[in-house]
Design brief:
It is a multi-pass membrane protein. This is Hydrogenase-4 component E. It is found in: Cell membrane. This protein is an all-alpha fold. It has one domain. Helix 1 runs antiparallel to helix 2, helix 1 runs parallel beside helix 5 and helix 6 packs antiparallel against helix 7.
Length: 227
């Protein structure tokens, strides 16, 4: 009697672990969207970045890519420790705790994010992109993270939420790069991380200047600048 093919196509432990981490990355993005405190958003970003670093280490161990250990270490130092510390320090100086209100209601923002996440996941899945490093589902989840991050940046009316949305968008891009290009030279991958440093400096200056002029981190008043 022939052995069923379903047993041969069962997901491996590596695929199960990596898909689980990718799902957790998406869930933390939704948690950022729902968070009402700026510090909570920063902590969630640190958790999400820790998951990205852990995923890089898992891929390095299973696919025998030792350069990814260095990438995981740099990502850990920069995105899990340095960036959250800088934003938290700026929040302490500004004395702000409550994140800005959304341009739309929380329920509407969540439904919009769910719709976009689904569209992104299935759209990427239809491209039939294969990778020797991570399962295809992780690539679809990375697109979902990017789209939800865009929603966070658009609907929230405070500098911190928009900065966290931008930084978490980079985590989605990092996940996608692990899927399709984990074997690229280390110097190229690290260069992407240092682009994040430029963004941190820009958002840091923006937060300080905006708070100095308006005594608030809300961007609602910036609508008066429209021509």
């Amino acid at each position: 009697m022939p052995v069923p093919l379903a047993a041969d196509s069962a997901p491996t432990t590596f695929e199960g672990a990596t898909n689980t981490v990718a799902v957790l990355l998406l869930l933390t993005e939704f948690a950022m969207l729902r968070a009402t405190l700026s510090r909570s958003q920063v902590r969630l970003y640190a958790v999400q970045s820790l998951l990205v670093s852990g995923l890089a280490a898992i891929v390095a161990a299973d696919r025998e890519l030792p350069e990814l250990y260095a990438l995981a270490a740099v990502s850990l130092a920069l995105k899990v420790i340095a960036v959250p510390w800088v934003i938290t320090r700026l929040l302490r100086d500004a004395g702000a705790e409550i994140a800005g209100s959304g341009a739309i209601g929380a329920a509407s923002a969540t439904l919009l994010s769910l719709a976009l996440a689904g569209v992104g996941f299935f759209a990427v899945g239809s491209l039939d992109i294969s990778s020797p490093y991570l399962p295809q589902a992780a690539l679809g989840l990375s697109m979902s993270i990017v789209l939800v991050a865009f929603v966070l940046m658009i609907v929230r009316r405070d500098v911190v939420s928009q900065a966290v949305g931008f930084f978490s968008l980079e985590n989605g891009v990092s996940l996608a790069s692990l899927v399709v290009a984990a074997g690229m030279p280390l110097i190229i991958e690290v260069a992407f991380l240092f682009d994040l440093l430029v963004a941190v400096v820009v958002f840091g200056v923006l937060m300080r200047v905006h708070h100095h002029r308006t005594s608030s981190l809300s961007t609602a008043s910036l609508t008066s600048l429209r021509g």
